[in-house]
Amino acid sequence: MKYNISFQPISQSKIHSVDFDNIPFGEVFSDHMFVADYYDGAWQDLRIVPFGPITMSPANLTLHYGQAIFEGMKAFKNQSGAPVLFRPEMHAKRLNASGARLCIPEFPEDLFLQALHQLVGIDHAWIPTNNPDSSLYVRPFIFATQEKLGVKPSFTYKCMIFTAPVGPYYDKPIKLITANEYVRAVPGGVGEAKAAGNYAAGLLPTQEAHDAGYDQIMWTDNLNYKNIQECGTMNIFFIIGDTVVTPATNGAILKGITRDSLIHMLRHKGMKVEERPISIDEVVAAHEAGTLKDAFGAGTAAVIAPVSEISYYESKDATTPKTIKLPALDSRDISTGLKKELHEIRTGIIADPHAWVHEVTVRDVASV
Q: What is the C-alpha end-to-end distance of the chain, expressed in Å?
């Protein structure tokens, strides 16, 4: 179905004021944004307008009860200079899966894809190409807009999509410390949803980890703080012997699209991949046996973030962590190769055997 999305161009682009060689992550925003409102049981008033502030009532339900979800995805340019999106249909499905968990009405997948294509097609000049780790970050989100206090689902919502040129999320390998007091999520909770509140709950433990000299938390289960879940805001992978192991999604772990892509790529190469519970004890034992070859985080923002060391507590009552150091980066052929291959698929350097890349039609703003 083709939707009628109106377009109001910005009077003057900000693009010429941006230093694309020095882009801080998530601080520079492109010219336009997509907006849709949900009321009377349908998504309506579809529009692309200049990026700018939004207004809301102090009684907005989201501000009090956190009924908000989001996605994170990226746009690139291929070898002919055309903008491309990577697996956008998967982001549409996950947005709606998150929405279902938070009682947010479904956003039509075909509308989501059309809005993405039109927005990126209009602001295609904002896609950086000077650094292989740069891209145009795309942020779709939906939040409640009803002006009423009371813990119940809103009757009205707003969906928005805006974009931001970004550089690398991490500029060096990361140091992790396992959680032994806080938990990110539990099965049956909302850990599988990209709910705004999930990330707010992680701020304090992450700040404490930063203060102690670590880059991120390695989240564990709530029973004995042993079974590994995620790494900061990323999924996590370990290479033990000839096997790649990543925690199985169990309702507490986000079904990452980068995670899914890497699993497909590894199995396509004939490598052994296991999605199963893995404990910090198993990781430490593999390190002691000399079979722990690699550990890395995987997510849209960071893509692949190599782990340089992991600090852990031998028991819940331990107060001083122990530390294991991972092999040197130049020995990690698998994860290094995966990152390179994923970049080359996204940018058309090599063929896309999975049909993941969707080319976007460039739109002349003056004629839209």
A: 19
